[in-house]
Amino acid sequence: MSEIIEVIFSINTFTAAIRMATPIAMAAIGGVFSERSGIINIGLEGMILTGAFAAVVGSFFTGSPWLGLLAAILAGSLLGLLFAFFTIKFKADHVVAGVGLNILALGITTWLMQVVWGQKGASPEVNGLPEITLPILNKIPILGDLLAFHSPIVYIMFVTVFLSWLLLFKTSLGLRIRMTGEHPEAADTLGINVYFMQYFSVTLSGALAGMGGAYLSLGQLSWFSSNMSAGRGYMALAANIFGQWNPIGAFAASFLFSFSDAVQMRLQGINLNLASELIQMIPYLLTVIVLAGAVVKSKPPAALGEHYEVGK
Amino acid sequence: MSKYKNILNSILAIIFALFVGAVLIKISGHSVKEAYYYLFYGAFGTSYNFAQTLLMTTPLIFTGLAVAIGFQSGLFNIGGEGQLYWGAFVTAIIAIKFTLLPGYLLIFIALLGGALAGGLWAAFPGYLKAKTGAHEVITTIMFNYIGILATTFLLKRYFKADGPVDQTVMLTKKARLPELITNTRLTWAIIIGIIVVFLVDQLLKRTAIGFDLKVVGENIFAAEYAGIKTGKYTILAMIISGAVAGLAGGTIVLGVLHRFITNFSPGYGFTGIAVAVLGRNKPWGVLLAAFLFGALEAGGMAMQLFADIPSDLMEIVQGLVILFVAAPAIFEIIFPVIKKNRGVESNV
After folding, report:
1. Does any domain span residue B182?
2. Is residue A301 part of a domain?
3. Any domain includes B120
4. I want to staple B269 with a disulfide (CB 3.0 to 4.6 A). Which of A232, B22, B81, B220 is the partner?
């Protein structure tokens, strides 16, 4: 028993949780933007996967992981824009189109992997993003261990949490985005460009999820493997809901999920006499319990999932 | 009129998806003609290939129908995969444990048990949705992971046959579904599938329960206003949907695998979404769509084998079909004629 507590409360577990939370939190904040503008974004999963793939392709052909990261942002944005086209312009059901996008992304990345590298399963190894040690912070005990030795995308994630919160709740652009998702008619009447707000938010969500994907393939690892997003997009969507459509809440929820995942992985390392399948269930069960509103009652943007025609 | 427009849209969606697929084949340096020749040949070229298409069609009838029942009731059940695993697992265990029963009864009870297991597994997300509002899209996905892990755990702990593979022992002969065409793996499973399509169609069209389910699916607020207990129907719809998905697993075990093997499904539960969307959530439409996707699966394999084109291309086609069908407006923009027709229609 004391061994379990040791595993749960060790600094290593928390550090691992911060790492693992990074791709989920990036995508979850993407989900916040998209859903605040009224577009349900199930497609986050596909956007993460595409970002992870594009990052490796970028790094493979240029040799630079930074250009790989840029490729991931671009690919994620493009996929976000495509999703926006389908949901806004072509009025596709958000959820159905999102699932279609995910299947498409899974097919395209697996297929292209075979076309580009001629191998199924995983890509060759490429240059990954190097870890960066933060000066000053690295001298502080505990806090330094937790925060100062990470991939650059982890730092980008923390900055993104703060900036996104600022943008959404302290700027007029953020107010317009939120108004679009709450009451598009009113926003339209006030002269807000509803379509622009939605295209902007969904494209941004693709860019963020794509960056999250780049962390999987160039931060944690340095290659791409088929379906490597492994359901993180759906967890991100749950984190966005549990986090009450707020970037800070979304990060907190992502951290909670990842923490349970980190505990799960480390518990498998010690001999608990418990089947690994049962331990692996923990994060999924936790997501369900959290979502079932055992903790809070969620209140989504009022016009979430609807199609609005400007000037109607 | 709109029925024909739906069919037209679906056909256009397939043609568009195959066209994009052709572009991708071309880009990757293969011959489109050769690729699509083998796609067609693999699906319909010989009677064996055609049987192969029907074999691939069978699980998709069930999983597509499961998703369609959910959609008709306003629910998006992405949990088909987990429900399918529970159905397969329980069917296999019954077929192994109750061998004293006569053959047809054994098959019937094993499939019934599998359907109940799938239904029960789907009832949890239904209950959570009805009681707490937890979105079924996320809970059913989580239940996929949990269900697959749970059946793997139970198999390894209690039912594993000797050997390196995580699987049960083989089923006795009498517990297996009989062949429909000799020397193929096509069994009576597809007939069961067609019967279930008929039954679900009747349920939705001719019964009070079906009517209420559709009212809840159409407009939950109106349904509540009309005094329908929507929560009850949310759970009921999930149970029926999950039971049908459970049959997909059960028929694979009794018809194809003749045992339960961990991780046996290549994602039938997810392909079911594409099938339901393409079939417009109508039971007979689902049957046609399942047939189309079965042909794509069987043909895709031949394409990979003979033309050396990764069969993942068919996944791309599936994703595109979903996107195009979900967005009928896309064709109205590309072909303004369709829109003009709609204008006429609304004037009438």
Report:
1. yes
2. no
3. yes
4. B81
Closest in A100, A115, A231 to B145, CB measured: A231
Partners of B157 on chain A (C-beta within 8 Å) are 275
The structural domain count of chain B equals 1
The mean predicted confidence, pLDDT, of chain A is: 91
Per-residue pLDDT at A312? 59
**How many Å separate Cα B48 from the centre of its chain?**
23
From A86's Cα to the closest Cα of chain B, the distance in A is 6
Stretch B18-26: mean pLDDT, rounded? 93
Contact B59, B114 (CB under 8 A): no
Summarised one tens digit per residue, pLDDT across range A264-279 is 888 888 877 788 899 8
B residues 239-298 lying closer than 8 A (beta carbon) to A: 270, 273-274, 277
Chain A closest-CA separation from residue B311 CA (Å): 8
Task: Answer yes or no: is pLDDT of B347 > 80.
Answer: no
Residues of the domain holding A153: 2-291
**Interface pTM, i.e. ipTM:** 0.88
B76: nearest CB among A95, A106, A298: A95
SS3 assignment, position B181:
coil
Please determine, for residue B17, whether its predicted confidence score (pLDDT) is greater than 50: yes
Residue at B97 is within a domain: yes
Out of B139, B152, B328, closest to residue A288 by CB: B139
CB of B53 within 8 A of CB of B118? no
Q: Is the pLDDT of residue B271 over 50?
A: yes
Sequential DSSP letters for B202-240: HHHHHSHHHHHHHHHHH-HHHHHHTT--HHHHHHHHHHH
| Count of domains observed in chain A | 1
CATH code, domain with A31: 1.10.3470
Q: Given this model, what pLDDT does residue A297 score? A: 61
B153 shares contact with chain A (CB less than 8 Å): yes
A36 domain-assigned: yes
Position A223 in a domain:
yes
Which residue has better confidence, B75 or B4? B75
Distance from CA of A110 to the nearest CA of B (A): 7
Is B328 among the domain residues? no
CB contacts, 8 Å: B30 with chain A: none
Q: Where are the alpha helices (DSSP H) in chain B?
A: 2-27, 32-44, 47-72, 80-97, 103-132, 136-154, 189-206, 208-218, 220-225, 230-252, 268-278, 283-307, 313-326, 329-334, 336-347
- Does A300 map to a domain? no
Q: Within an 8 Å CB–CB cutoff, is residue A119 touching chain B? A: no
Mean pLDDT of B262-286: 91
Q: CA B316, CA A102: separation in Å to the nearest integer? A: 10
Three-class SS of B27-74: HCCCCHHHHHHHHHHHHHCCHHHHHHHHHHHHHHHHHHHHHHHHHHCC
Say yes or no to pLDDT of B4 above 90: no
**Contacts with A282 from chain B: Cβ below 8 Å:** none
CB contact under 8 Å between A107 and B313, yes or no, is yes
Q: What is the mean pLDDT of chain B?
A: 91
What pLDDT is attached to residue B119?
Answer: 98
Mutate one of B72, B140, B323 to test the A interface: name it (highest A CB count within 10 A): B323
Contacts of B63 (CB under 8 A, 6+ apart): B80, B84, B244, B245, B248, B268, B269, B271, B272, B275
What does the block give as tokens for B304?
A: 């990979």
Q: Does A105 touch chain B (CB under 8 A)?
A: yes
Contact A103 B24 (CB under 8 A): no
Average pLDDT in the B311-324 region? 90
Cβ distance B139 to A278 less than 8 Å, yes or no, reads no
CB of A230 within 8 Å of a chain B CB? The answer is: no
